[in-house]
């Protein structure tokens, strides 16, 4: 091994697999014994001080969520327990790749993070304005985000890195197609949809479970910007989306979204023709139609940006009884990474800050840590079990057990169809939107220096749809590789 440069951990141990995290079987959850995955995510969370590593530039607002449909047959979550019930909430919108001072109107996914202050604790849905993502295993996330950030030598954005990674990660094609389409540049935060993206698990009072996906549909209608308009605004008013949201609420024009879910019976996941836990894929609505849940309204601006927006922390691990996790490998990594990032960036006591504090009292044995600003538990006992009446566990609130099988190993998903849904999305577009997608992609790929990267990516476009690949190749002055046709 001394003759070649091989990947190692920070302690010099060779890394056997840097593409797949270790799971309990091909469908099982990620195992904490995957120390390489944990080290990658933990180190990645500490690369920037003090702004967020991703989603640094954002805007937020307060509001409420009101239930409009009875779905108690699917979940026992208390905030969804009756039609008409209202729950206070806070939302943060953001771009993904840019720094704190970057422009709002760039082509980038938008973060869509919602915190519900329920009577059973805080519930966070931490998603994007896209129903899918670029990768499907958290072990690749630090590498992916490095390609979206700045070149370590030039400190400039690096299209070579972007397209090199995407061309070597064909699972990204569906999201790339979505991003380069019209919805990759929303007109405002008010005029875009939001998605939980991952598959989650709902469990009812009888202990019966289903798989679920979240869809927040904007009541303002979807509106997008042309690329040239976005570019112009980025120079003239880089805070355009932030300003629009604040001014709309300030004028009493309260934006709203209708929340829908897709429900999949647990047994369907074993035989469905796509992997329902693969975040690079959607569930077709013809198989699992949208079911209305309720309406989210934003009606109050923050009084202090830093206290309420910058210090707001979200994690998909913040759930309440009746809502749980799926073996989605990207979700499993986020369950660790998000809370770990907040402990580093804001501090171990971030959940005690007013913007993050739950309505119901937090009772636990966590003590001390930087910036502990409350009574720190006073003189109460700080261990459990104890004989002094301290808070005790409630077994009845455990998540429903999840059956796993197979061997613990670093294995990929057993589905290598990277092209069908990307091709379907392209074919769903009008000719006008197809032309814009082609133009956006050609413009983004032209600066790439290596022709082999361009040709490799053209292969992926062609496999999704021959017209898709051919038109991009022509736009770049290249030909589709003969072996692909």
Automatic annotation (TrEMBL):
Residues 7-22 have a biased composition (Polar residues). The active site is at 55, 128. Heme binds at residue 338. One of its GO terms (molecular function) is heme binding. Residues 8-392 form the Catalase core domain. The keyword Metal-binding applies. Keywords: Heme, Hydrogen peroxide, Iron, Metal-binding, Oxidoreductase, Peroxidase. It holds the Pfam family Catalase-rel. PROSITE patterns: CATALASE_1, CATALASE_2, CATALASE_3. SUPFAM superfamilies: Heme-dependent catalase-like. Residues 1-22, 374-393 are annotated as: Disordered. It catalyses: 2 H2O2 = O2 + 2 H2O. InterPro entries: Catalase, Catalase_3, Catalase_AS, Catalase_clade1/3, Catalase_core, Catalase_haem_BS, Catalase_immune_responsive, Catalase_sf. It comes from the Bacteria. GO terms for cellular component: cytoplasm. Its EC number is 1.11.1.6. Its cofactor is heme. One of its GO terms (biological process) is response to hydrogen peroxide. Belongs to the catalase family. This is Catalase.
